[in-house]
Design brief:
alpha+beta; 6 domains; 6-stranded mixed β-sheet; globular; Inactive purple acid phosphatase 1; Fn3_PAP; signal; Purple_acid_Pase-like_N; repeat
């Protein structure tokens, strides 16, 4: 069954009875499961997934919320700028959304499709009675979230009014950022939570309804938990049954844990609800029973202590209820509560915050690792230390990596963490400050790179304020906010445009004050993520072992246990076939030493390689990268093309670009770590402009200066993708040590060239410029360096502090090839390094 859809008129959409890809529906922006339509054409750069109900929406309707005129179905993707802001906001719910909407162009009235299809009466999980929709604009305060709105659902029995969005909230849901289900709860006061911060958006929560995990004290705003990129769609019935069993088991564990640490000798009942409290306990730290009292020996009053009547031992309620054994999220072993430790060093430090600890105070200790830590650092009760804070869940891992390997970071001076005193970072959240990122979903057309706009504001702007970009495993880059918006210091408002690349994880943005030496976290943005973080990205071509072979290599987040990788390829406009692929799993154990295994590590990736053979000489081929998931779903990259090599001996000019020491840089101008060679953007820009005049690229050494950090490799492959995906991009690695000097240069290398009949020897990163490298059998140039200097486009120097080349870059078409030796492939080519 096919459907010709107005949003994608080029191809028909094909019906699928049981879609399981989970890719976002273009209509409602929810994951597409079950009956759906999608485009199956191979040359289509987007699949246009639609739920069946979204694909079959009427193109126009009369709606009771706007009875005067008919409403027309449209997509907000047809607008940008101010029109986008106007048409993405619904006049019924007041929210902005990227879903389809119905619009009245006469009145500028707009209603989301989900709001247009709301039932007149509903039964919800959040209220016991039936609720009735009113279609008259009626200002009200929602009894569920406490915020104002219009067009409420009302309860005729108990004067209850609620937003339609709040009415849709389930009692239990699951989010990606937490292991346990979250329960809808009316107030934090019910649970006496210590975490007044939503751990999804890292902003303060109010006392009205929210989602909460009592096992971990995890708090989330209603709407944050309901966002598509936060919410994990699972079988709720199974979840409820599982949760019921787990809660009973958990209650038992907690009860047993309490009795193993504090034995309640006597207890009493207080209050109308029959709450039991212990008035006499037996604690592991003291030999006698301890009685609850509000008086201590110096006759001062307190909120309650347990005191020994025999020997005046006093234990306050907080210490008495400390767990004897506990776990810390970023440590593999349990910690035991200790008050003594045999230590002859006389030095007492906390291994988490690296500050001194009082030897007279209780602390937590891991005996297996000899790892002592403050109680507050382990339990997360000190909100001022970023490493131990339970709030900022999305950056706590990044900070912990820094804290546990701080000396290691400092030893690598080219890493920006060595410039930022992140171990001193404190939380100073301000309700009036904000950072907003848009769009929130990237790569909807299979792009691996996309620009994001940040809007930020602070009531106390300073020249020291800066924006940090966080991706869960580690920092990506940072940028001083006032550099991009000169009036920020005066107005307190600014904006940035940053280019993000698909690195398999989502992003958040944080506004810091007080500079780099004493950073204070002021505000944190919403999360931004690519539609498919695991998508195949950054293909690179390389010449195969034979003249008529081509190798394709790319990376993705799909391992061999999740999907089968392949390349769909064939003559341009002709029949396409599938080529099998080998997959290499690249994890932390695949690399050696620090910082690659410590602060430089980011996430595991999968490297795929496929071989395309029996190519016709000079023929143009198209290809795209594919993954077939084990549920039968296909995931595709966009389509690329390349030209095959000529037949050996064929009279065909092959234009080769050879360079080294390029590095990488950020197109958005941000101060990103390992920020080497600003001029590399000029190199790639010129190569991209000259693609039609290039047949082969040789990159000889000093590739991206990653220096042990994973992230720059993704950034480098994204930077060269327009080149490497369309022609052979051959990389020669080397170690920048030593140099070829006498007598090796004159005696050994020349014999080597003669033995293998080398036509041209190309050197990269040679620090001595002696005439020791003759080109075999040619009297024109007796020195490779002289040869390279004649071909000006091969010479790039980045001596200028601005990052621009100090000498001009000539394009290939401007070269007089009659004055240069012709390169005819195949030829014997020696590529030399130090």
């Amino acid at each position: 069954m096919e459907l010709q859809h107005w949003r994608h008129w080029q191809h028909p959409l094909v019906f699928n009875e049981d879609e399981r890809s989970g890719l976002f529906c273009w209509g409602c922006r929810e994951p597409a499961f079950g009956p759906s339509y999608s485009c199956m054409e191979s040359d289509c750069d987007a699949y246009y997934y639609h739920h069946k109900s979204c694909a079959e929406l009427p193109l126009g309707l009369h709606h009771p919320s706007h009875p005067n005129h008919p409403l027309i179905l449209f997509s907000m993707y047809t607008y940008d700028g101010e029109e986008y802001d106007r048409f993405s906001k619904c006049d019924v719910c007041g929210e902005k959304s990227e879903e389809y909407s119905y619009c009245c162009y006469r009145c500028n009235f707009n209603i989301h499709i989900r709001c247009s299809s709301l039932s007149l009466t509903i039964q919800t999980e959040v209220h016991d009675h039936q609720l009735t929709r009113t279609w008259k604009l009626l200002k009200f305060t929602c009894d569920f979230c406490g915020k104002e709105g219009n067009l409420p659902y009302l309860c005729a029995q108990c004067d209850f009014g609620i937003h339609s969005r709040c009415a849709a909230c389930p009692r239990i849901l699951k989010v990606f950022r937490h292991n346990h289900p979250l329960h809808l709860t009316p107030s934090l006061e019910v649970h006496q939570s210590d975490s007044p911060i939503c751990l999804l958006c890292v902003r303060k929560v109010d006392t009205l309804c929210l989602y909460y995990c009592s096992r971990c004290d995890f708090v989330a705003h209603l709407y944050c938990a309901m966002l598509p990129y936060n919410r994990e769609y699972i079988n709720l019935q199974e979840l409820k049954e599982e949760q019921s069993t787990e809660s009973k088991s958990e209650d038992l564990k907690l009860y047993q844990s309490f009795d193993s640490e504090i034995c309640k000798v006597k207890k009493t009942t207080v209050g109308e609800d029959g709450t039991e409290i212990a008035i006499e306990i037996k604690h592991f730290s003291h030999e006698h029973d301890l009685k609850l009292t509000d008086e201590i020996p110096n006759n001062t009053k307190c909120n309650g202590v347990f005191r020994c009547a025999t020997c005046d031992f006093v234990l306050d309620f907080k210490c008495a209820t400390l767990p004897q054994t506990t776990w810390y999220n970023q440590h593999e072993h349990p910690f035991n509560l200790r008050y003594t430790l045999e230590d002859d060093s006389g030095e007492y430090y906390c291994e988490i915050c690296e500050e001194e600890r009082d030897p007279k105070q209780w602390f937590y200790y891991c005996a297996e690792c000899s790892f002592p830590a403050h109680r507050d650092c382990i339990l997360g009760e000190n909100p001022n230390i970023l490493g131990g804070m339970r709030g900022l869940n999305f950056i706590s891992l990044a900070i912990f990596l820094v804290l546990t390997t701080l000396q290691e970071v400092w030893s690598h001076g080219d890493q920006p963490l060595s410039k930022i005193a992140i171990h001193k970072a404190t939380v100073d959240l301000n309700h009036d400050a904000y950072v907003k990122a848009s769009p929130t979903v990237l790569g909807l057309k299979e792009q691996a790179t996309e620009w994001v706009t940040l809007e930020y504001s602070s009531p106390k702007p300073s020249a020291d304020d800066w924006i940090g970009v966080f991706s869960p495993a580690n920092f990506k880059c940072y940028q001083f906010a006032n550099y991009s918006s000169p009036k920020y210091k005066d107005t307190g408002k600014g904006y940035l445009k940053l280019q993000l690349i698909n690195q398999r994880l989502d992003f958040s943005f944080a506004l810091f004050s007080s500079g780099l030496s004493n950073p204070k976290l002021v505000a944190v943005s919403n999360q931004v993520a690519f539609a498919n973080p695991n998508a195949p990205v950054y293909p690179r071509l390389a010449q195969g072992k034979q003249w008529n072979e081509m190798t394709v290599t790319w990376t993705s987040g799909y391992g061999i246990n999740e999907a089968g990788a392949f390349v769909e390829w064939g003559p341009k406009g002709g029949y396409q076939v599938h080529a099998p692929t080998g997959t290499l799993t690249f994890n932390q154990n695949s690399i050696c030493g620090a910082p690659a295994r410590t602060v430089g590590w980011r996430d595991p990736i999968f490297i795929h390689t496929s071989f395309l053979s029996e190519l016709w000489p000079n023929a143009v081929y198209t290809y795209k990268l594919g993954h077939k998931l084990f549920n039968g779903t296909y995931v595709w990259s966009r389509q690329y093309q390349f030209r095959a090599s000529p037949y050996p001996g064929q009279n065909s000019l092959q234009r080769v670009v050879i360079f080294g020491d390029m590095g990488k840089d950020e197109a958005d101008g941000s101060n990103e770590y390992n920020n080497f060679q600003r001029g590399s953007l000029n190199t790639t820009r010129e190569l991209i402009r000259d693609l039609k005049n290039i047949d082969l690229v040789l990159h000889i050494g000093d590739i991206c200066y990653a220096n042990g950090y994973i992230s720059p490799w993704d950034q480098f492959t994204a930077q060269v993708e327009p080149i490497a995906s369309t022609m052979p991009y051959m990389i020669v690695s080397y170690v920048d040590k030593g140099s070829f000097e006498e007598p090796m240069g004159r005696e050994s290398l020349q014999k080597l060239w003669q033995k293998y009949k080398v036509d041209i020897a190309v050197y990269g990163h040679v620090h001595n410029y002696e005439r020791t490298c003759p080109i075999y059998q040619t009297p024109v140039y007796t020195d490779v360096i002289e040869f390279l200097l004649q071909i000006k486009f091969l010479e790039f120097h980045y001596q200028d502090s601005s990052g621009l080349p100090t000498q001009g870059v000539d394009r290939l078409e401007h070269l007089d090839l009659q004055k240069l030796p012709c390169l005819t492939l195949p030829l014997a080519l020696a590529v030399m390094k130090n």
